[in-house]
Automatic annotation (TrEMBL):
The keyword Oxidoreductase belongs to this UniProt entry's keyword annotation: yes
CDD domains for the chain: ACAD
Gene Ontology molecular function, alphabetical: oxidoreductase activity
Class in the EC hierarchy, top level: oxidoreductase
Residue ranges of domain Acyl-CoA dehydrogenase/oxidase C-terminal in the record: 275-408
Entry protein name: Acyl-CoA dehydrogenase family protein
Length: 425
């Protein structure tokens, strides 16, 4: 039983039904929120309306954002790396919910720019940390003919008697060098502004591209973009997350030392699995932030707009719809935080946890942002109001970092395999 002397108003935290947050966590949340509101929202809105070429051009507000994010120290790799797992599971989601509440395209830009540096630090090798630790990076994994197949690493979702597509990007060992030829998909995030890549692709170690079971030999390597043979395509024009620039990168017999390989023949798939597990986990909390932003806009609007003789909020059906939105935002956060707790806990990490969160949150975020448009009526459809952008951003996230249905298929396959293993089938 809980005891009350009178029925109080609910006391809500910045994100809603906040439980216990330490003073440090509250301070981080506050600083990140102010950065998101004062720096990210205005820049994100501008970039959303710009031509993709202009987004990455000299003088674009994107560069201002990158400089301010660096100055803020909010995503300092050494500081994050120095946290305990328990701290990471609580602090990383606080930061990313606020950043994506500000602008999810910019939040993902900041994450992906650090992927190669993160991989370099993970190796602990001073040579790689020195070479890649400060470079802006991207994550090259998908190719024109290999989209979901990249996510389906072990090809559990392929048709019987078929094998992974040969793809468009290949590496081979040549003496003391790795030689890379081909191209990435146009979907690689931050390519137009990247100085290097964490690159995953099929690799011939001397015995061909395929293993006996039809899966690929694979490699993960850090590749600087200032080498002969590297070129880039035009920035991609897409419906949502327009602040996140994307584009192809082409490799023409690009040679890197073998020491730039961060995961070889037997480690490359697990390494990709680890990157995707982190990416999906982060998408779950980020799009909780996007859903929350849409809910907050709708909440404010229905207290101002009058129809039917009164403010919209006074209509019972409107209140019911708002409550459903708030409930969905809370459900998103609960699941996103559960994935963080699992991944940094004794049983994790696993992509199953991250994909459970990413797919639910991004699907739910589409529902919440769509309902926000509906509550704003015609205004919701115009670029004068922020919710149509949030809807486009949410819709894009259902395909980014693995298309949701394919992530669902992979997850179901793991659930079945785990069950069979547990009961001895
Ligand atoms: C915003 C954004 C950011 C991205 N960032 C990056 C990045 O940084 N680096 C990178 O490498 N890539 C990136 N991607 C690419 C992304 O990972 C792919 O778009 C995604 O994996 C889907 O691949 P695809 O677009 O080729 O679709 P396809 O694989 O062609 O899928 C098309 C449809 O077919 C269905 N389908 C496919 N395979 C199966 C199957 N086996 N069984 C049943 N249905 C199936 C899917 O469900 C989907 O609906 C990004 C994409 C977006 C949208």
């Amino acid at each position: 039983m809980f005891n009350f002397d009178e029925v109080p108003l609910p006391k809500l935290g910045l994100t809603g039904l906040d439980g216990v947050l330490s003073e440090e966590e509250l301070a981080i949340q506050d600083v990140t929120h102010r950065f998101a509101e004062e720096v990210m929202r205005p820049i994100g809105e501008k970039l959303d309306k710009m031509d993709p070429q202009d987004v990455v051009a000299e003088g674009s507000p994107l560069w201002d954002y990158i400089a301010k994010m660096d100055e803020s120290g909010l995503l300092d790799l050494e500081a994050i790396g120095g946290m305990s797992d328990a701290e990471k599971s609580r602090i990383i989601p606080i930061i990313f919910e606020e950043l994506a509440w500000g602008d999810c395209g910019l939040a993902l830009t900041s994450m992906v720019l650090k992927f190669p540096a993160f991989a370099a630090y993970n190796t602990g090798k001073p040579e790689l940390i020195e070479r890649f630790g400060k470079l802006r990076g991207c994550w090259v994994a998908t190719q024109p003919d290999r989209g979901s197949e990249v996510v389906d690493m072990d090809f559990t979702e392929g048709h019987p008697d078929t094998k992974q597509h040969r793809g468009n990007l290949h590496a081979r060992i040549d003496g003391e060098e790795l030689v890379i030829t081909g191209q990435s998909a146009a979907w690689v995030s931050a390519t137009p502004i990247a100085e290097c890549a964490l690159l995953y692709c099929q690799c011939d170690y001397g015995d061909g591209l395929y293993k006996e079971d039809g899966s690929h030999n694979y490699v993960a390597a850090l590749v600087p973009f200032d080498l002969p043979g590297v070129s880039k395509g035009k920035p991609l024009d897409k419906m949502g997350m327009r602040a996140l620039c994307q584009g192809e990168v082409f490799f023409d017999e690009v040679r890197i030392p073998l020491s730039y390989i961060v995961a070889g023949q037997n480690e490359a798939f697990p390494s990709f699995f680890g990157a995707l597990t982190f990416g999906n986990m982060e998408m779950g909390i980020s799009f909780t932030g996007v859903a929350r932003a849409a809910y907050e806009h709708a909440l404010a609007y229905v207290h101002e707009r009058k129809q039917g003789g009164t403010e919209l909020i006074n209509h019972q059906t409107v209140r019911a719809r708002l409550f459903k939105m708030q409930q969905k935002v809370e459900a998103c956060r609960a699941l996103a935080l559960r994935a963080f707790a699992y991944n940094y806990g004794p049983n994790g990490p696993h992509l199953l946890a991250s994909a459970t969160s990413k797919t639910f949150v991004t699907d739910t975020c589409v529902e919440v942002t769509s309902e926000a448009i509906q509550l704003l009526g015609g205004n919701g459809l115009t670029k004068e109001y922020p919710v149509e952008k949030l809807f486009r951003d949410a819709r894009t996230a259902q395909i980014a970092d693995g298309e949701n249905n394919v992530l669902g298929l992979k997850s179901a396959t793991w659930l079945s395999k785990e069950y069979k293993n547990r009961v001895g089938l």
